[in-house]
Amino acid sequence: MMLVILALLIWVVATAGNVWLANSVYAHSRTIKLLVPAIFGLTLLVMWELIVRGLEISFVILPPPSMIASRFASSIPILWADFVQTFLKGALSGYIIGCGAAFVLAVIVDRYDFLRRGLLPVGNFMAALPIVGTAPILVMWFGFDWQSKAAVVVVMVFFPVLVNTVAGLRDTSDMQRDLMRTYGASYSQTLIKLRIPAAMPFIFNGLKIATTLALIGAIVAEFFGSPTVGMGFRISTSVGQLALDMVWAEIVVAAIAGSAFYGAIALIEKGVTFWHPSQRT
Amino acid sequence: MGCVQGMMMRKALQQSLVPVLAVIAVIVAIWYIACVPMNSAWTAQQLERSGGTMTVTEHIADTWSQERPRLPSPHQVGAELWKSTIAMKPSSKRSLIYHGKITLTATMLGFAIGTGLGILLAVGIVHSRAMDMSVMPWAIVSQTIPIIAIAPMIIVVLYSIGVQGTLPKAIISAYLSFFPVVVGMVKGLRSPDAMQLDLLQTYHASKSQSFWKLRLPASMPYLFTSLKIGVAASLVGAIVGELPTGAVRGLGARLLSGSYYGQTVQIWSALFAAALLAAALVAIISLIERIVLKRMGVAA
Amino acid sequence: MTPCPTITARNLDLTFETNDGPVHALKDVALDINKGDFVSFIGPSGCGKTTFLRCIAGLETPTAGEISVNGMSPEDARRARAYGYVFQAAGLYPWRTIGGNIRLPLEIMGFSKTEQTERMKRVMNLVDLDGFERKFPWQLSGGMQQRASIARALAFDADILLMDEPFGALDEIVRDHLNEQLLHLWAQTNKTIGFVTHSIPEAVYLSTKIVVMSPRPGRITDVIDSPLPRERPLEIRDSAAFIEIAQRVRDGLRAGHDDA
């Protein structure tokens, strides 16, 4: 019980501290902007630890952060193997194939107006569907190993990237296209020099969305069948064994992988679309 | 005035209707053609076993009507869909309407909770700088994390303390729709430009007044965009929530049992049912969006 | 004395089909523009001045009548790189430097890398933007961006320069300065210039010939050959001759307005 009171106390102090920091003169500095959410996150972790121990909640149901950390540290080889299987082999390869195919199709669709008017509504429709449902079918076709997971990822990232790329290619103003006509530029010259650079902000919007979808697709696909390695596999079997600390450890890996992947694409975006107003504010 | 608008809408519909139908027709055609090589191996195997012969036409016809095809043909899926929805009693345990309702209940409950809490949190973030600085970064980061990985655990943990059925799935659905709504709503509540906010200041409007009169109306378009994303995410959450404990009811459960027992046609029809459900939900929200925005005078 | 005209239009007619019904943008337009002329087109919205400029450029196709540029059809003239076009907005690519933007038409037209650099430096000097090659468009003011846009149109040595209200978005002080620079440029390069504007003083100050147009349907109301000398300091705007021409333009506009 003491621990629970301690937890509440810590929460009050930390929140007061954050309120003070947020309203202080230094609120706009980079350090404070990182410090406040960090304090918030840390406080939640500490409270979690104290409340679980204080209320004597069964560790099987809800393991405290300390237990998760120790399980994480002791399972690095397994976690790494799972990461390689799910992320590097499944998610990443599917991401590259899916985004590449979507880009190529978007360029073709842009060329032929009839195709665009027909495919875009269908594409928008497909992008909203529970594509994870295709996982069992793709496992049946491609087998249990990472290829089926990559296939699921391809299907998941394809439509959002397609829709965003087509929108981006169409974003050039009439004036810009008229200017290209006055130079007697061919279709491919206009495409390469004007429309693709102008489409980059949209394309990267789609690519960022796709990073999250890729990881989700790879993990959920493993719920439907997988060799004895992989993040989704580990999660579902550990849940079955009620080894929830392992599940949490895998979730930590997924979180790190997901945010690092997204961050990497965002970094590339900063370099490519340095000229866009949203990158300059 | 309305007559011209009606004409323009009809023209826009015609413009996209023909190409869309053409594209769908081509997709169905390619689907039929793909069935042949995909299912041929099984046909050949059967032929070998029975020692008979088949003409090319008979061979093709066979690939389109196998019981456990690698790729069910469009009419097989359509027939199964029909059989399990309209031609069956909705209370039957094999009716897709029955399963759809199970999944839909969890989806809607979760969606309501997630959206409600999301809007509340967004209002808090916009009005309290401490909340903004401490919570918002996490909300944004959480969108890059595959939250769905938590689903099995939530189901099992709640199951062990006696909570089962709709509620665990609804919690997952709520979680999946929560963050998109928070991020979108914050964007929307912050969308009025400095000029608008200054104007209200000259009227000495209170924070609450500027919220109800300016921020909330201005956030409507953003809210509806997030709602559409959120409802699709909620549906996915409910389906995935049916997987871990081997549920027997719901569309996700149908997908799972279909994959366990190799009932391909069942998988495809469950998938289509889920797709139609998702499309219907997004369409309903789009309809509500159009009505609300029209009444608010926002240009279509 | 009059050489063969560079741009000729006869019985030019253009009707747009819009959602609200047909719009008669140009009716029976006939005009001769000679080499070295500076022709302004002035009139209220909808009088067809921009449409006519776009016809010369081959960006619009007339529904009747004929138009020839350098003795060819507008499409052939475009393929022969006969003209440069300057729009109302600078329209520079934000992902290219100023130098890169000026190279854009040169890359498309296939000039060699060395030629590109040489031409780019030359035209930047012409518009007084030396030293800004590595800057990006958003780092420049509106007036400077428009100068870059003009430089871009000059880079490939087209005989004809077509400008559609290029200074419309700029404030008056910058506008005066750019007007002076444009005249100086014209004297140096001796191009034929077609210039669309809303401003009477600008039209009278810059041109050797002023074409007054009026709307519904778009047509030419008056063509004024300016008696002002080619060398024109800004002060000429206060001279009696200037005011007289401006008055004539105003009368032409009013007449067109009353007709409609």
Describe it for me?
Chain A has 281 residues and is mostly helical. Chain A has two domains: 2-57; 72-280, Orthogonal Bundle (MetI-like fold), CATH 1.10.3720.10. Chain A has helices spanning 2-23, 30-54, 65-74, 76-111, 113-127, 135-142, 146-169, 174-182, 187-223, 231-240, 244-272, 277-280. Chain A is flat. Chain B folds into two domains: 2-71, no CATH class; 96-295, MetI-like (MetI-like fold, Orthogonal Bundle), CATH 1.10.3720. Helix content of chain B is 78%, strand content 0%. Chain B contains eleven helices and no strands. The radius of gyration of chain B is 25 Å and the shape is globular. Chain C is of the alpha/beta class and 260 residues long. Chain C folds into two domains: 1-82 and 158-246, Rossmann fold (3-Layer(aba) Sandwich), CATH 3.40.50.300; 93-157, no CATH class. Chain C has eight helices and nine strands. Chain C has helices spanning 49-56, 74-79, 98-109, 113-126, 142-154, 172-189, 200-206, 240-259; strands at 7-18, 21-33, 38-42, 64-69, 83-86, 160-164, 192-197, 209-214, 219-225. In chain C, α7 (200-206) packs across α8 (240-259). The radius of gyration of chain C is 18 Å and the shape is globular. At the A-B interface, α1, α2, α5, α6 and α9 of A face α1, α5, α6, α9 and α10 of B.
Give the overall average pLDDT of chain A.
88
Instruction: Please indicate the count of domains of chain A.
Output: 2
Helix content of chain A: over 70%
Any guess at the CATH architecture of the largest domain in chain C? Answer: 3-Layer(aba) Sandwich
What CATH first level of the largest domain in chain A would be assigned? Mainly Alpha
User: By helix and strand content of chain C, what is the structural category?
Assistant: alpha/beta
Features:
heterotrimer; B: 300 residues; mainly alpha; MetI-like fold; 2 domains; 11 helices; globular; C: 260 residues; alpha/beta; Rossmann fold; six-stranded mixed sheet; 8 helices
Short characterization:
Chain B has 300 residues and is mainly α. Helix content of chain B is 78%, strand content 0%.
What's the layout of helices and strands?
The complex is a heterotrimer of chains A (281), B (300) and C (260).
Chain A: H1 2-23, H2 30-54, H3 65-74, H4 76-111, H5 113-127, H6 135-142, H7 146-169, H8 174-182, H9 187-223, H10 231-240, H11 244-272, H12 277-280
Chain B: H1 2-50, H2 56-63, H3 74-84, H4 96-127, H5 129-142, H6 151-160, H7 166-189, H8 194-202, H9 207-241, H10 251-260, H11 264-295
Chain C: E1 7-18, E2 21-33, E3 38-42, H1 49-56, E4 64-69, H2 74-79, E5 83-86, H3 98-109, H4 113-126, H5 142-154, E6 160-164, H6 172-189, E7 192-197, H7 200-206, E8 209-214, E9 219-225, H8 240-259
Parallel strand pairs in C: 3-7, 3-8, 5-6, 6-7
Antiparallel strand pairs in C: 1-2, 1-4, 8-9
Helix pairs in contact in C: 3-4, 3-5, 4-5, 7-8
